[in-house]
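Because discrete structure vocabularies remain unfamiliar, we first show an illustrative case, written as a sequence plus integers encoding its fold.
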Amino acid sequence: MAGLDRIRFAKFVKCRALMEGGATAGERAAGAAAAARIAAAAGLSLAEALRLTGSGPPHRAPRDPPPRRPRPWEKPPLRADPIGLDEILAQKARTEAYRKRRADRAAEARRADLAAEAAERAALREAQEARDRAWAEARGKAG
């Protein structure tokens, strides 16, 4: 590119695309005018710049729209073969075992909480008893 450096070339290619593919006649005319200004700034005529740039950047193939998620009634069934009784019983046993483990963990946590609360109440009771004794002693000495 004789007078078109990289930046001017990129601008010229954009203006050429607008000149050739503008939606309205006004957009195409504005693109042609801008392309002519850029070519003149590079010391070229519009025809020379068009010849130098060739066909412009390679056009990309149009992209397919992204696939949409199927609606619930369009989804295929989860299983083609029916679930057998033995599989249902196995699922039920696994579920019951899971629930039992979860209940055991919850009961253990409750027992730990109750033990901590009992220890706290015992400490509070001892502190209150000490205050009561001190009050009774102070009252006995005063009276």
Observations:
- The CA atoms of residues 88 and 94 lie 10 Å apart.
- Residues 80-143 form one domain.
- The chain has a mean pLDDT of 88.
